[in-house]
Amino acid sequence: MRINKFISLCGIASRRAADTLVQERRVQVNGETITDLGHQVDEISDTVTVDGRKAALPKKTKVIAFHKPAGCVCTKDDPQGRRTVYDYLPPGYQGFKYVGRLDLQSRGLLLFTDDGELLHRLTHPSYEIPRSYYVWTTRPLSESAAQKLVDGVDIRDPDDPEATEEIAFATDVYLENGFAELVLIEGKNREIRRMMRAVGYEIRDLKRVSYSHIQLGDLPAGEFRELTADEMNKLKQAVHL
């Protein structure tokens, strides 16, 4: 990469102003002052300084979409020795954090990111990021039960006499052929399972199919993919980044 482009991408100066910095002998590459305006640098292996300060390209946020299989846990290390979601990821993604949990038996879309602020905004209720789930129950969900889920149900533990009221709701419920689709904007612990229990239903299978506008699609279980540039832009727009 030409030195003036590198300096410009680092946000230090425009390309024309970067040429002036080179001419004024204010730019060093690997400790040596350069004067050639056409000097090429490797953005990974070369160290560039301007006026003695290291020039660095802005960090490029990455997000991956992962199809979590049922039976693995959302944790880095499991004391019970169960398989974790990180067991499916290569070394380059081991430092990424998952965006919202899926419980042991739930499956479907799980996002991972290396950006802490993006993670915070995607999971904080104030940003109202929609998540869609397909839910299979032991008997078909009735229209009245679906309406209760939209109106809000108390999901406190009925076996805990000291538990206080905890209301959860779905923004939308669609009754499909054989299953229901629930759309939520919050991610409380085991929220959908507790909501279904509150209206008298038992879940057979639970699959998250979207998070914001990111779709699980036909991504096979246990596989992952990096989000496209367009998906990244839309994801950042959704959380005002």
Which helices and strands occur, and which strands form pairs?
Blueprint: H1 3-9, H2 15-23, E1 27-29, E2 32-33, E3 48-50, E4 53-54, E5 63-68, E6 97-99, E7 107-113, H3 116-123, E8 131-137, H4 143-151, E9 153-154, E10 167-168, E11 172-175, E12 180-184, H5 191-198, E13 203-211, E14 214-215, E15 224-226, H6 229-238
Helix pairs in contact: 1-2
Provide an overview of this structure:
The chain has 241 residues and is α+β, with helices and mostly antiparallel strands. 21% of the residues lie in helices and 25% in strands. The protein is built from six helices and 15 strands. The protein has helices spanning 3-9, 15-23, 116-123, 143-151, 191-198, 229-238; strands at 27-29, 32-33, 48-50, 53-54, 63-68, 97-99, 107-113, 131-137, 153-154, 167-168, 172-175, 180-184, 203-211, 214-215, 224-226. Strands 5, 6, 7, 8, 11, 12, 13, 14 and 15 form a nine-stranded mixed β-sheet that branches. It has a four-stranded antiparallel β-sheet with strand order 2-1-3-4, with no helix packed on it. A two-stranded antiparallel ribbon has the order 9-10. A hairpin with a 7-residue loop joins β6 (97-99) and β7 (107-113). It is elongated and about 75 Å long. 26% of the residues are buried. The model has no long low-confidence stretch (mean pLDDT 94).
